[in-house]
């Protein structure tokens, strides 16, 4: 069976699905997944089905330290791969991610990679969640009414209940999710979106990546290595 015809439900990690079923009914999830399966059978949809739940695959609920909320996947071919703001290795770094890297480099005195693949962050407990997990080619927000919002809202609430998590909410759409989160148990950080249209309105200089690591360390957790410190070339004299 090809990935296009295989039900989207089969790709959801069981531990996450079990947790989500404490928030949503099985019928709600089935209705959503039926709509998504139909979209994949009749439209060009991104990301590829096996990548839709990549954020869930790379972190168990108990492993999440930081959540970065995006809106929907990139709608161009070869860009979306299941992690908000991230692109596969070899794909040009998108403008918003370039600005994210710029803020990290400025605030942490580090050097970010040339790749836009953020799986290294995910492996450290950074949960890169779009509020819609699929999109039709060339049509941003085209799947925002399929039912993904309830699904991803449930995920945010599950993580929030654990406590001790940093939530980065950039832009109006992400900030609207703050009412789902328990601010008494977590750190909620808000700033304008890192898009070139708004980054200069307060995203640059927000120090979210510094604040996040300070909070994690104070909570007894290992900080995130956002971007590596510049290292000398050990082979330059060989």
From TrEMBL:
The active site is at residue 72. GO terms for biological process: base-excision repair, AP site formation via deaminated base removal. Keywords: Cytoplasm, DNA damage, DNA repair, Glycosidase, Hydrolase. Its EC number is 3.2.2.27. GO terms for molecular function: uracil DNA N-glycosylase activity. Transmembrane segments: none annotated. Pfam families: UDG. GO terms for cellular component: cytoplasm. It catalyses: Hydrolyzes single-stranded DNA or mismatched double-stranded DNA and polynucleotides, releasing free uracil. It is found in: Cytoplasm. Residues 57-216 form the Uracil-DNA glycosylase-like domain. The keyword Cytoplasm applies. InterPro entries: UDG_fam1, Ura-DNA_Glyclase_AS, Uracil-DNA_glycosylase-like, Uracil-DNA_glycosylase-like_sf. The keyword DNA repair applies. Belongs to the uracil-DNA glycosylase (UDG) superfamily. UNG family. Excises uracil residues from the DNA which can arise as a result of misincorporation of dUMP residues by DNA polymerase or due to deamination of cytosine. This is Uracil-DNA glycosylase. The lineage of its organism: Bacteria, Pseudomonadati, Bacteroidota, Flavobacteriia, Flavobacteriales.
């Amino acid at each position: 069976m090809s990935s296009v015809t295989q039900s989207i439900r089969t790709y959801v990690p069981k531990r996450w699905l079990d947790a989500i079923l404490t928030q949503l009914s099985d019928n709600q999830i089935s209705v959503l997944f039926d709509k998504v399966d139909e979209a994949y059978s009749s439209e060009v949809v991104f990301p590829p089905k096996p990548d839709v739940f990549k954020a869930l695959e790379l972190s168990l609920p108990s492993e999440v330290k930081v959540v970065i909320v995006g809106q929907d996947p990139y709608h161009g071919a070869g860009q979306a791969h299941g992690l908000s703001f991230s692109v596969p290795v070899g794909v040009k770094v998108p403008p918003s991610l370039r600005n994210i890297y710029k803020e990290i480099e400025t605030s942490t005195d580090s050097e970010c990679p040339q790749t836009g693949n953020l799986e290294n962050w995910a492996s450290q407990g950074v949960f890169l969640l779009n509020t819609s997990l699929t999109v039709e080619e060339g049509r941003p927000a085209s799947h925002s009414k399929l039912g993904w919002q309830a699904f991803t809202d449930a995920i945010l609430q599950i993580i929030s209940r654990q406590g001790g998590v940093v939530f980065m909410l950039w832009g109006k759409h992400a900030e609207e999710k703050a009412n789902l989160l328990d601010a008494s148990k977590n750190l909620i950080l808000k700033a304008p979106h890192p898009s070139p249209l708004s980054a200069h309105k307060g995203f640059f200089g927000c120090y979210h990546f510094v604040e996040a690591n300070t909070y994690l360390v104070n909570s007894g957790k290992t900080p995130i290595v956002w971007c590596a410190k510049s290292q000398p070339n050990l082979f330059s004299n060989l």
